[in-house]
Write a structure and sequence with these properties.
The protein is built from ten helices and eight strands. It is an alpha/beta fold and 255 residues long. It has a single domain, classed as Alpha-Beta Barrel (TIM Barrel). An eight-stranded parallel barrel has the order 1-2-3-4-5-6-7-8, surrounded by six helices. Helix 5 packs across helix 6. The longest helix has 19 residues. The chain binds 1,3-dihydroxyacetonephosphate (13P). The site of 1,3-dihydroxyacetonephosphate has 14 residues, from strand 8.
Length: 255
């Protein structure tokens, strides 16, 4: 099986690094590696979702990539304390936002809140990476129905013209932070189910095109297999994006 598109390599820095200085140092070093890479890379070859306070510092430095947010606030402009709304993130330099990551869901984010966040983020022209993934699997495969329902409920009210900026990330919760990723076959089965749900909601042409990422314990040794055999168009990477050599190795091995 072949890679479908130029792979989207997305890092999720989570609550790292500890300081702005470390973040700037990382991006400068990564940029140098991209600029001098022996392997020919596309003009933009990485996405990094960083702590929101670093966005304005990193976005101007990221000539070979895009800087984004790990979450958005679904509140409207006004009197709510804490959190950054999509227009604020965008004007600080964010090109994209992750929404519905399982670590955010765990803090009590509701389905309704997620749907609002997706709509606001897309309206703000942020490329929006929507995460879905099962906590556990059952033999009967009812987790697939759960994932399909998640897609349907979250996207039902989104205007069709905004879908071109949407990316889906399949992140099985049991693989995140673990030693073992899903197998490419396990990933492939879910990707088919997700495309089926999207087809019934938006149409088959869009369902074939929409970019789907895999995330959960990806390393440089497994990255390419997901793109070749897992039916995905890119990767959402936690730990291996928090270390320059590991992240750059993934960028070069997958392109
Ligand atoms: P790890 O790659 O560390 O398993 O994290 C995956 C993840 O949560 C990316 O969003």
């Amino acid at each position: 099986m072949n890679k479908r598109t130029t792979p989207l390599i997305v890092g999720n820095w989570k609550t790292t690094p500890a300081t702005k200085e470390e973040a700037v140092k990382f991006i400068k070093a990564l940029e140098k590696k991209c600029a001098t890479s022996k392997k020919k890379l596309p003009k933009k070859s990485y996405y990094l979702a960083v702590p929101s306070v670093f966005i304005a510092h990193l976005a101007p430095l990221a000539k070979h990539g895009y800087i984004g947010a790990q979450n958005v606030s679904g509140q409207s402009l006004g009197q709510t304390t804490g959190g950054e709304i999509p227009s604020q993130l965008s004007s600080a330099g964010a090109s994209f936002a992750i929404i519905g990551h399982s670590e955010v869901r765990k803090t009590g984010e509701t389905q309704e809140a997620r749907a609002i966040k997706v709509a606001l983020s897309l309206q703000q022209n942020l490329t929006t990476i929507f995460c879905v993934g099962e906590k556990t699997r059952d033999k009967e495969g009812s987790y697939l129905k759960e994932l399909e329902d998640d897609i349907r409920i979250s996207f039902t009210d989104i205007p069709r013209n905004l879908f071109s900026n949407l990316i889906i990330a399949y992140e099985p919760v049991w693989a995140i932070g673990s030693k073992t990723p899903a197998t490419p076959t396990e990933c492939f089965e879910v990707v088919i189910a997700l495309r089926r749900a999207i087809a019934s909601l938006i149409g088959i042409d869009y369902a074939k095109k929409v970019h789907i990422l895999y995330g959960g314990a990806v390393t440089k040794d497994t990255a390419t297999t997901f793109l070749e055999e897992g039916g995905v168009d890119g990767l959402l990477i936690g730990r291996s994006s928090q270390e320059i050599v590991a992240f750059f190795d993934i960028i070069t091995t997958t392109h």
